[in-house]
Structures are given as C-alpha cells and as structure tokens.
Predict the 3D structure of the following.
Amino acid sequence: VPMSDRVGSLLVLHADTPCGRAAVAAGLRRRLHVWGVPASAGAELGPDVESITVDSASEEEVRGLGRRLEAERGRVDVLVTCPVGVPTGGLSSAPAEEILARNLVVPMLFCRIFGEAMLVRGEGRIVQLVSNVATDPRRWEELPAAERSDGNGANAALAAAMGGLVSLSRHYAARFRGGG
C-alpha cells in the first residue's frame, strides 16, 4: 500500500523486537502509516516502515518527536510499546537499572507524551505489550539456565518492569476512559 493511501498512523516503540515486528506487520495489514523506534541502533525495520532515531530516554527529544510526527501526519492514532527482551549475552549481562529504564521508564515517557496528545484530541489508542515470562514466575524455568541466573537482579528488574507496565496500563485506562 503506498504511503499516500494509508488511513491512520501507528508508532511502535522497540519496533525491531519480536513483539515490535508483529505490531508493525499488524499495522501495515490495517493500512496504517507506521513509524518505528528501534531498540537497537541501526536496526532494519523494512521498506514500508519509517525508522525513527531518537534518544528515547530524553523527555525533550520524545516531545520533539511528538511535535514532528503531528506536523507530518497530523497525529499518532495508535502507540504500541514492546518489551526489549533479553539483551545479547542474557539477562545476567545487563544491569538492572538499564532493564528498568528500557522496559518501564521509556514506555512510560512515550505513553505520557503521546497519551496527553490523544486526550486533547479526544481519540487514540495505547497498547502495551509485556513479557509473560516476566509476569508469571512459573515461566522462568522455560528460560535457558544462563538466563535464569540472577546475580545482578536483572530477572527481578524485568519482572518489576513488566508488572509496572501492567499497572501503568490500568492507570492510563482509568485516567483516559471516555476522553481519549
């Protein structure tokens, strides 16, 4: 579908992850204009996706991105946030602070900024995908042994981030109900 024939817009945070790729594919099937913010610098998102490079931890840059996308397309209709998942080298290689930042703080920032714009417009959707491995402790035994190691608190950080996103989703659902 040519970009000019797209009927709405979708922004996917961490579009190069497995969940992100699924969200991108769903948006393209629905004929949405799709922007993707990759979790990894230089990740290829495909020819039908506009890849966006932004310091996703910078409130100033994310607000600037919001202004830019609204100027280009008029609005972001749907925001999908995706978990970053297990870093290269397994969970034990990433500090807990990095896991919390990438999987909770960054999605929270995007939801706040783009959610406020949706609320002002009176329409929009936010979808937050979470890892069931992080929210269901029984699933830990399905991970390879190296990834179950929690010497630096990374598994607990990922579980806390996913639980935080579930709570954040409930908070925004209550806050935006009927208004966006």
User: Anything to note?
Assistant: Helices lie at 18-29, 59-73, 96-121, 132-135, 145-148, 154-176.
